Description:
The chain is mostly beta strands. The protein is 11% helix and 32% strand. The protein is built from three helices and eleven strands, in the order ββββββααβββββα. The strands form two sheets. Strands 3, 4, 5, 6, 7, 8, 9, 10 and 11 form a nine-stranded antiparallel beta sheet that branches. The chain is globular.
Amino acid sequence: MIIKTKFHGDQEIEAEKIISFPAGIPGFLEEKEFYLIPLEETALVVLQSIHIKEVAFIITDPFSFFPQYEFELPQDLVDTLKVEAEKDVVVFVILTIKDPFHQTTANLQAPIIINQTIKQGKQVILNNTSYTTRHLFIEPLSTQQEGE
Length: 148
């Protein structure tokens, strides 16, 4: 199957790797089928709608960049995504890419949870947390030096 993508032009994809978002993604409730396309030589991935090329999100594994990031999956989400084991779950966060890149932010308050076994996902909004929708993705150099 060939889809049109925002960043990669026409791409041939494997239909069995399409991820279903039955509830859509907040702000894009009509878009229910997405495909993961890695950005070469980076830890970033594109979550690309298979129907509308302009609907694409830059996402990443938050644990690689925010080692202290943790939360508990709400039981209703575990049930909705039919999670049977921790290995079923992969977590991503949406990035808001800025120019210059060091101003890029990560939405840690609303991670994307995917059951990779059944290829179903949902963006969940974490309540009662200190996480926000705009955590700096790359810590400023001056802050890094202070901590050393």
